[in-house]
């Protein structure tokens, strides 16, 4: 592990070169470099333009349905208190869900897409491309493209096209062209390669709408900024509800956009424990997981330096997760930095544990969570019984699980 | 300090013809065959060899080079073995420049300092690392120059006059002009645009400018060669190898011979280009 000096604030990154410590940067082909610099300038201008902010705010409110609710998950809390009792403890922290599943399109992805489509429009781009894993970002991209009348091409791994059929259909309905990518394992990594190849071939008119807080600078910063509305709202909402900050906040980490969105506004609240959940897949012993920060090491892929699953020759591994949205061998660079500084701890949750949390949440709360979010819930259920009942925890319910019913049905041996 | 690359371009200038730069993928279809391919290149008329290092995620490459890299990786190719390939080539050829071309991560994982020591020992003359733009020069470019290895930069149609000085700043050996925005193996744009672009770059540098992306035939090599200091052929060579391989991996023909035949044809193109220029 790299040793990193603890900064005065965890919220000032990245630096001008797009670095979070040793992570981040702009590792892209020369063809893309002028575009990335142009994007950075356009984003700086937009950030400081009140009309941009106002337009995004209006869309967030009236189109996406923000603010999303902070919901006291009483059923799940009762369940963890029962678990505590069964272990002879009287614990069981109070669990809140940040309800990003209630957003338009059914996940947090819309927050970023609205911000970036306004930017694309501002830059005069006329064609949108995106990569998607679970299809949540693909759907959100197709949605905002439809809303603003721009053609949209979504690259999606062939494996994911198969396991996320409902979202593929939604994208098509929304007028997007879904291009299956069969290289590698046909998952998010391969979709991102192909999207980058498209971008490099269509630099004049195309805007690449990256869905996660990764890629070359300024994407990690920009996506984080657009997603930070999650944490900003959650912080205000919990202060209003409970009169104090939470003790623990938890979110699932694939590329890490919902997690950085929840975490960032809390980073300088020293009393708040922050936990990111990686996809442990079938266990960390082999290669069938996507726990890049728990079991990988720093490397360079998709425009940034970050923790990656790779072999000793620096070849990137495919990884595995039951959840298509977490099925990525890397992670956003800011998470890598937060890991090394020790501010955030990252722990793996296995496929089976996530599935169990999926079912549990469905039965105790009447909420079908996305398999990605179920990873975060699984960890909450694991640690809450050991925490006192007056402790407060916020779990980011990043998306709804309707898209996953086929996968879960198959795994549980149910006919749909 | 002059390198094999500098000496080669000086010799070609005296000869009055453009360079033929040939790319092939190290380890494709296997280590021994690719060594044979490499050894056959100078005799077939290649002036400079670009030795491809396979990478699992070649984001700037088209389907042909992606597939070649995967074939090599499946046969156990690695950066270590690619350096070994160069070293074995050097045992019998001490003049043909070798430029290693690939992506940064395998080098980063190998360790930059250790890599540069081993690259020099293996007779590597230059590096083209696709995902290291000038903004990331501290990573490898500057250490490579200190180690006596040329760091060759790609310039593209998106590299405008404002940006060119930054791109050329730490470039040595030659400039590789990517003739179009896109991935390797795409179609060749029209020659007048390429010629204008080469001229534009030459206003900013005295380095030789070679042109690549899209050159497949002797005729194209001749035409492009008349407008530049060299012509790069990659995908066509990689395809020549691929065409000798059955779906089950067995060979229908000798890949080294297929490559040599193709390079001989291209070589006649660049040599005709010198005649065209002399007329």
What's this, in brief?
The complex is a heterodimer of chains A (416) and B (279). Chain A has 416 residues and is an alpha/beta fold.
Question: What would you call the quaternary organization?
Answer: heterodimer
Biggest sheet character of chain A: 6 strands, mixed
Mean pLDDT across all amino acids of chain B = 94
**Strand line-up across the major sheet of chain B:** 5-4-3-2-1-9-8-7-6
User: What is the tally of beta strands of chain B?
Assistant: 9
CATH topology of the largest domain in chain A: Rossmann fold
CATH topology of chain B: TIM Barrel
Highest-level CATH class of the largest domain in chain A: Alpha Beta
Q: What is the architecture of chain B at the second tier of CATH?
A: Alpha-Beta Barrel
Find the structural class of chain A using helix and strand composition.
alpha/beta
SSE run of chain B: HEHEHHEHHEHEEHEHEHEHH
Side by side, the strands of the main sheet of chain A go: 3-4-14-9-10-13
**N-to-C SSE string of chain A, H for helix and E for strand:** EEHHEHEHEHEHHEHEHHEHEHEEHEHHEH
Protein name (chain B): Tryptophan synthase alpha chain
Function (chain B): The alpha subunit is responsible for the aldol cleavage of indoleglycerol phosphate to indole and glyceraldehyde 3-phosphate.
Family (chain B): Belongs to the TrpA family.
Organism (chain B): Phyllobacterium trifolii
